[in-house]
Amino acid sequence: MTWRPQYRSSKFRHVFGKAATKENCYDGVPITRSVHDNHFCAVNPRFIAVITECAGGGAFLVLSIHHTGKVDPHHPKVSGHRGNVLDIKWNPFNDYCIASCSEDSTVIFTHLCVGYLLLQIPRCLGRQQNLTVPWKELQGHSRRVGLVEWHPTANNVLFSTGYDYQVMIWNLDSPEAVIKNPVRTISHHSDVVLSLSFNTDGSRLATSCKDKKIRVLDPRTGNLLQEANCKNHKASKVLFLGNLKMLLSTGNSRWNHRQIALWDQDDLNVPLLQEDLDGSSGVLFPFYDPDTHMLYIAGKGDGNIRYYEISSEKPYMHFLTEYRSHQPQKGMGIMPKRGLEVCSCEVFRFYKLVTTKALIEPLSMIVPRRSESYQEDIYPMTAGTEPAMSAEEWLSGMDKGPVLQSLKPGSRVTDSYPERRSGLGTKGLGSSMDTRRSQTRPGQLQLSYIQDQLSNQEGKEGRKEDSNEDRRSNGQEPPPCSPPKTENELRLKFHKQQEEIRRLREMLNQRDVRIKQLELEINNVRNCQS
To answer: How far are the Cα atoms of 301, 356, 526 from residue 326, in angstroms, in the given order?
Structure first.
């Protein structure tokens, strides 16, 4: 009986990490010395925020994403807290709004550009003094607050948890500047909550706790759905793996080896998979990309990043390779998919906090391709900047998946529907601008815009069909592929065909959703006119 090695076909087998050059890093950043096991960094396509070391209260630094090189030591900071800042998170639907929590038992929500619509950060902070006045302050915790997390699909819904063992839900659409009563408080934890993670549509919340238990909760009602208490695995971080209905946790084994474990979200009695990594003591930070099904494991205190490909069938996890560096990271920030360089085949980007050099180093994960054009097979539709629903809709019992967008250059339309933009612009500055437009010509601008979009889309499809017919008529149609001769070739063709079918289904579903949105907009405009 002969033994044959098993080779798995994957387009991400050869993904490699490429660190930025020194001039493309952020140098001279006074990174915090806090021993809290958080990321300490938050990134979006416009700005990078990092918690800094400072005296007399907590602060964090906000830089333009293009502000690389040496950072001015007197650069103004956001310093609305009275204690050390422990965590920061950008609003996923508004690149100008950020939430932060602190040892002073408060959570503050800062709108970095209050004044004239959405100004640029350098203009707002051009006075060379710190930004100290938050847009909203949330007062409900009795002890320091260690984590904040935004709901992935509902607008202006924020979760916070602290050393009072409570998870609190806040509705930021409330008109008060100081909110003292959360919408709901979840009290199922017997110790400090170490991590929070939502599934894709935000209908489930997973938590890891200092009591080494993993819990799955209904975030709206606060009901406990599942609880894991595995003696062989002491979890410190937990993460939902997209729509695979699986959880991944990182922690330590019984012998204090760093370990990762995979769980079925509907049955947390026994893990599906456990794997020991090494004997280091630093916390493992997990990051998951639902578009490529790639999992990244970064260790605090070392410079290594392991990455895997996740599948829904056994053996579930497929190790790809490991990025190694001599510069240890204290924390990590990740760029949302809409901020990646798609023409360079970049599928993920980290921002490593290197405290030994006061440096923030971007690290790009790249799929090697010869062509520098847009590669549709590695960039499916991804979560965009439009919320799927309002806070009131989510609180009333509605669940919706994220509104998807294409990463293809030129396909994104920014600020196309200002009334549905996130942040407080829906009832503030943005709405006043829209009312001035509607008073001049009620509904005409919106209706004409929708009709233009429909005609442009039909025109593009028509030109694409014409170009395809021209290529066939000119004899440029590639010859049909020869039938597969071996079992491996047949398997490869089958996988390619399945991938193409999946991609076409996603495109069709997205087009149907877009058509329904446009139909609703047209009906609303006609109702307003009548």
So the answer is: 10, 11, 62
Determine the 3-state secondary structure of 318 from DSSP: strand
Give me the phi and psi of 276, to 5 degrees please. -80, 135
- Note whether 379 and 412 are within 8 A (CB): no
The enclosing H or E element of 188 equals: none
Residue 111: its pLDDT value, please?
A: 77
Measured CA to CA, the distance from residue 62 to residue 50 in angstroms comes to: 7
Return d(Cα 387, Cα 314) in angstroms, integer: 35
pLDDT of residue 450: 45
What 3-state DSSP class applies to 357? helix
Closest by CA to 229, choosing from 217, 213, 215, is: 213
The reply to whether omega before 315 is within 30° of 0 (cis) is: yes
**Can you tell me whether residue 68 is helix, strand or coil?**
coil
- Convert 205-218 to b/e letters by CB count within 10 Å (16 or more is b): bbbbbebbbbbbbe
- In the numeric block, which tokens belong to residue 416? 């196309």
Write out the DSSP string of 441-474.
STTHHHHHHHHHHHHHHHHHHHHHHHHHHHHHHT
CA distance 219 to 205: 6
Residue range 476-490, pLDDT digits in tens: 444 445 566 676 677
Q: Residues 412-421: contacts with CB within 8 Å, 24+ apart?
A: 412/338, 412/384, 413/453, 416/449, 416/453, 417/386, 417/521, 420/386, 420/387, 421/93, 421/94, 421/386
How many angstroms separate the CA atoms of 112 and 106, rounded?
18
pLDDT digits (tens, 9 = 90+) for 398-424: 999 999 999 988 875 443 333 333 344
Provide the pLDDT confidence category of residue 383 given band limits of 50, 70 and 90: very high
- Phi–psi pair at 412, nearest 5 degrees: -85, 135
Q: Which of 36, 69, 37, 31 is nearest to 53 (CA)?
A: 31
